[in-house]
Amino acid sequence: MTDLGEWGSVDEHDAPTETDAAIATAETPELFYGSVEQFVMEKLRYQFKRKVTPRGGGNVWAKDWWNFPESVSRLEALWRAWEHLRLDPALGMSVWWRDHADHHMHVLLSEHGPFAGGDNLGDSKNGEPLPCDPAPEGWFPDVREERGADDG
After folding, report:
1. According to the model, what pLDDT value does residue 58 have?
2. Are 119 and 40 in contact (CB under 8 A)?
3. Residue 92 contacts by C-beta under 8 Å, 6 or more apart in sequence?
């Protein structure tokens, strides 16, 4: 299968070289958080201080958010977008809130979202961090350590 370039044509001069790969690796900024779990536990839960209730009729959040595949996927997307957009000092965080956080957190906290009917639902008042239990050991390894091992 022929790999078509960005404009739908093949150009052997556009093929990435070893130098391009080295530059891309060297220019990849260090992640601030090493895993989605660290991002949720140390950042996100403190930014979304919402009242959540297991009784229905409001925001729903599972303390074991990591047991819900949709939640992990959405939170991973939020984390990766945050890591990228934090580097834009002008509009990065505004874009992150508008295009990522507001959308995904609305879905996650919805009474019809992925946590609906869960067994380990959180209960918190306005102004309190989202209640979170730590994930089982080894579920979310620090990817910064993996990157460092690849360099050596």
Report:
1. 87
2. no
3. 84, 85, 86
Residue extents of the structural domains in the chain? 34-132
Q: Which helix (H) or strand (E) holds 25?
A: helix 18-27
The reported pTM is 0.78
- CA angle at residue 72 from 68 to 78, to 5 degrees? 145
Provide the phi-psi class of 17: left if phi over 0, else alpha when psi is between -120 and 50, else beta. beta
At which residue do the structure tokens 């089982």 appear? Answer: 136
3-state secondary structure 79-132: HHHHHHHCCCCCCHHHHHHHHHHHHHHHHHHCCCCCCCCCCCECCECCCCCCCC
What are the average pLDDT values for consecutive 10-residue runs of the chain, which has 152 residues?
A: 46 54 65 98 95 86 97 98 97 98 97 90 92 96 80 55
3-state secondary structure of 75: helix
pLDDT reported for residue 11: 47
User: Is there a contact between 75 and 40 (Cβ–Cβ < 8 Å)?
Assistant: yes
